[in-house]
Amino acid sequence: MSKKNPHAVALGSLGGKRRAQRLTREERSAIASKASRAAQKQVTPEQRRRWGLAGAKARWKGSSS
After folding, report:
1. 33 lies in which domain range?
2. Count of domains in the chain?
3. Would you say the pTM of this structure is higher than 0.70?
4. CA 55 to chain centre
């Protein structure tokens, strides 16, 4: 049995949607850019290299059709 207030839970589930509606396009873009940079910091150079090679290989494979 949950001890959480169901009314508070319902309001909490709207938080992100409400915030997204309030933000301007530039603010949403800045938040997404910050998240992207944080995610990129977790990727090792070796992983980045392998992903780059896989992407290039896929592009070459697709261009021969």
Report:
1. 7-63
2. 1
3. no
4. 19
